[in-house]
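Case 135 in the screening queue. Each case pairs one protein sequence with one candidate compound; here the compound is zinc ion. For every case the pipeline is the same: read the inputs, emit a complex structure as tokens, and attach any notable structural observations.

Predict complex for case 135.
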Amino acid sequence: MNPKQLRQIWEKTGGHCHFCGDPLEFDKYAGKEADGRWVLNRIAQKNKRDSDSVENCLAACARCSGLRWHRSGEELQELLYLGIIAKKEITNSTTVGKMLVQLREKRLAENESRRVSARTTSTVTASDEGETDGL
Ligand SMILES: [Zn+2]
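Case 135 output:
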């Protein structure tokens, strides 16, 4: 993928993540800094050559890309649907909602401790990184 192609992909969504709409800084493509970092999201997993075409790629923030990981569109719809139900429980402070808040905090703490240990051991592969989901 050359810089011109990257620019075309970035411009398809007006420099925003195609999932959440957050602004993406073009110069932070695949960068190290978490804030504003963006990556390519392949719409269809075809063969390697077609998969890397400008037509098959959209810009996504690193966080959304991590959440999507290997999931199909159908799985993402199910996650969004469950998320809407969960959000309503949390907003209404139901018993389930309070449990969900606790589970979310626990998960975030676990992800953070995994990141810290990954930084100290540096043996984490890209697939391990995706496994954390950022959830
Ligand atoms: Zn995003």
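Case 135 observations:
- Residues 115 and 125 are 12 Å apart (CA to CA).
- DSSP finds six helices and two strands in the chain.
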